Amino acid sequence: MKETEHYEVSRINEQHSKYVKLLENLCMSSMIENNNTCIGQILSDLSAYSQSHHEFEESLMKKIDYPYYDLHITEHTKLRSILKNIFLDLDQMDTRTIMTVLLEMKNDSISHILYTDMPLIKYYKEL
Ligand SMILES: [Fe+2]
Ligand SMILES: [Fe+2]
User: Fold this and answer.
1) Tens digit of each residue's pLDDT (9 = 90 or more) over 9-29
2) pTM score, two decimals?
């Protein structure tokens, strides 16, 4: 693997760390009653961050002609759709429901990193 390619792997790993931190902030914020302004701001930050992160992974997959590209894109689209729907429905949910949906979203996102992103990184490293 070339030096620039090492950089791409470490950039994805760094983005995942930041992504998980935002998810943790979100779940912590949801434990406070009437905190929708703060939750909405973190959701907005997470939405922008996931868009740019997904685009980075997608450009890498195109570059290496990744065989599971379509499946991976489908999961990205689904994750961003879940995020958007939570943002839109935030004011209709009580604290307990917000905590539940955010925890589910966090689990879905971490599962994606473990079972979809990690195989991509492994494939890329073995090229
Ligand atoms: Fe991904
Ligand atoms: Fe990712």
Assistant:
1) 999 999 999 999 999 999 999
2) 0.94
